[in-house]
Design brief:
- With 562 residues, the protein is of the alpha/beta class.
- The strands form five sheets. Strands 2-21-17-20-19-18-9-10 form an eight-stranded mixed beta sheet, with helices on both faces. The protein has a six-stranded parallel beta sheet with strand order 1-12-4-3-16-22, with helices on one face.
- It folds into three domains: 177 residues, FAD/NAD(P)-binding domain, CATH 3.50.50; 172 residues, Polyamine Oxidase, Chain A, domain 2; 98 residues, protoporphyrinogen ix oxidase, domain 3.
- The chain is globular and about 70 Å long.
- The longest helix has 24 residues.
- The chain is 33% helix and 17% strand.
- A hairpin with a 5-residue loop joins strand 5 and strand 6.
- The termini are far apart.
- Helix 1 packs across helix 3 and helix 3 packs across helix 14.
- It catalyses: 2 a plastoquinone + 15-cis-phytoene = 9,9',15-tri-cis-zeta-carotene + 2 a plastoquinol.
């Protein structure tokens, strides 16, 4: 049953006064991982005075997630920080990177009574969920972000911050475009009355447009070892690509082409001939084991304000700090190889009792001290490389009709998933114009192309998805403006045999830790993985409290002797 009603247009102001600001050191063009590119566009008329917008919300009630094993496990880990013994002397923990991993690390350290100081290189929060506002007041984002029911640590985080109402839950369906039938879609609808895995099985069996019955049977038989073998079997498939695993299990290639090209691109922005099958099996296990695991929600506005700022406010309220425009230039070492300080680009140094790097793996590898490079723990990181992705936003001069209030799998060779954000997101709601946000992937061959080339290619694909409304030459719907955000190195590329290279959050260097979705945790490259990595990093630091206090005392003693 849907929740219907009306809301007003949201005008949200970033509470920048809550953040300690460093000197402005913005990324230069082409330097940033997740750089924003502002695109010249045709001017449109002013929106005029703010007035209430009557929005018919087709959002669904928040699903019952609290009784699932994974949610309870995540809740228990969260509670362990709040119930931990208050430290006699809180640790000062320096954290580089205010993406979800860094924010999560700082939040849970603050919950445990410590003092995190979170340093963000750019002037915007969020890392891979960063977003920017243009001169018209419209937002454009680093990526199209979906919050699944199978994200227990993320769902706990929303609850702990008191912002569950900021997730707009959609109907429990997966909707795929039909390339052979332009303008048509095929649905997998998960019935509410059935428990998992029956609801997922029913959704697959009821869809006869994408897979034939013989293909469904062969696919089901192929999946049996994963269903019976559990997590050990799933982890053992890391050495095989999706395409190779399907063939090994006797699953027809058409199953891969019809379903798993789209799924691979949605999960890791690459095709199934590159993606590790472990990634697919982890997702399928979560979706099949939990009734609401595959149910999706959109954030009700831009991520920096609607998700990141509540975390910052929480950290601030407990005595921690978040500083923007504070880029790390160098990790400075003591004679024994431990961290002495972080040197910032402005020449300042900052010291603490413990240090965390919560940046993407590619950025950390640039900061990696020469003395650490031959240590096995760090040397293995060479295999972990971020995958390029492009996020495209297009504002049209009219409301497109052939779309849904949901995430859509394009099944296009150039596009992954997309959504009409003027419908799916309250803050972006517009009754007169559509704004499509699209993930352009795989993007490796396109990342160096001009914005106009990317838009031209995108419009050709959209003409197939909206044959009655969009044409490549804009003789139908006109493009009012667009924004493109290129991320040359996004989440780590989950190719076969990556799993042994993923590091634990506690490094072999005493007092130094890592956080990020590439570090060892069971949700791979995702927002859930980033949040969980931060919790595990914070847990390691809390467990190491006595050791870190001892190290700090030794440093003080050494300083006084010299």
């Amino acid at each position: 049953m849907s929740l219907c009603g009306s809301v007003s247009a949201l005008y949200l102001n970033l509470q920048s006064s809550k953040i300690s600001m460093g000197s402005v050191l913005a990324f230069r063009s082409g330097e940033s991982m997740g750089n924003t590119l502002r695109i010249p566009f045709k001017k449109r008329s002013s929106k005029g005075a703010a007035c209430p917008l009557q929005v018919v919300c087709i959002d669904y009630p928040r699903p019952e997630l609290e009784n699932t094993v994974n949610f309870l496990e995540a809740a228990s880990l969260s509670a362990s920080f709040r119930s931990a013994s208050r430290p006699a002397k809180p640790l000062k923990v320096i954290i580089a990177g205010a993406g979800l991993a860094g924010l999560s690390t700082a939040k849970y350290l603050a919950d445990a009574g410590h003092k995190p100081i979170l340093l963000e290189a750019r002037d915007v929060l969020g890392g891979k969920v960063a977003a920017w506002k243009d001169d018209d007041g419209d937002w454009y984002e680093t990526g199209l972000h979906i919050f699944f029911g199978a994200y227990p640590n993320v769902q706990n985080l929303f609850g702990e911050l008191g912002i569950n109402d900021r997730l707009q839950w959609k109907e429990h369906s997966m909707i795929f475009a039909m390339p052979n039938k332009p303008g048509e879609f095929s649905r997998f609808d998960f019935p509410e009355v059935l428990p998992a895995p029956l609801n997922g099985i029913w959704a697959i069996l009821k869809n006869n447009e994408m897979l034939t019955w013989p293909e469904k049977v062969k696919f089901a038989i192929g999946l049996l070892p994963a269903m019976l073998g559990g997590q050990p079997y799933v982890e053992a498939q890391d050495g095989l690509s999706v395409k190779d695993w399907m063939r090994k299990q006797g699953v027809p290639d058409r199953v891969t082409e019809e379903v798993f090209i789209a799924m691979s691109k949605a999960l890791n922005f690459i095709n199934p001939d590159e993606l590790s099958m472990q990634c697919i099996l982890i997702a399928l296990n979560r979706f099949l084991q939990e009734k609401h695991g595959s149910k999706m929600a959109f954030l009700d506005g831009n991520p920096p304000e609607r998700l990141c700022m509540p975390i910052v406010n929480h950290i601030d309220s407990l005595g921690g700090e978040v500083r923007l425009n504070s880029r790390i230039k160098k990790i400075e070492l003591n004679e024994d190889g431990t961290v002495k300080s972080f040197l910032l680009n402005n020449g300042n140094t900052i010291e603490g009792d413990a240090y965390v790097v919560a940046t993407p793996v590619d950025i950390f590898k640039l900061l990696l001290p020469e003395d650490w490079r031959e240590i096995s723990y760090f040397k293995k990181l060479e295999k972990l490389v971020g995958v390029p992705v492009i996020n495209v936003h297009i504002w049209f001069d009219r409301k497109l009709k052939n779309t849904y209030d949901h995430l859509l799998f394009s099944r296009s060779p150039l596009l992954s998933v997309y959504a009409d954000m003027s419908v799916t997101c309250k803050e972006y709601y517009n009754p007169n114009q559509s704004m499509l946000e699209l993930v352009f992937a795989p993007a490796e061959e396109w990342i160096a192309c001009s914005d106009s080339e990317i838009i031209d290619a995108t419009m050709k694909e959209l003409a197939k998805l909206f044959p009655d409304e969009i044409s490549a030459d804009q003789s139908k719907a006109k493009v009012v403006k667009y924004h493109i955000v290129k991320t040359p190195r996004s989440v780590y590329k989950t190719v076969p045999n990556c799993e042994p290279c993923r590091p634990l959050q506690r490094s072999p260097i005493q007092g130094f830790y890592l956080a990020g979705d590439y570090t060892k945790q069971k949700y791979l490259a995702s927002m859930e993985g980033a949040v969980l990595s931060g919790k595990l990093c914070a847990q390691s630091i809390v467990q190491d409290y006595e050791l870190l206090r001892t190290l700090g005392q030794r440093k003080l003693t050494g300083a006084s002797i010299h």
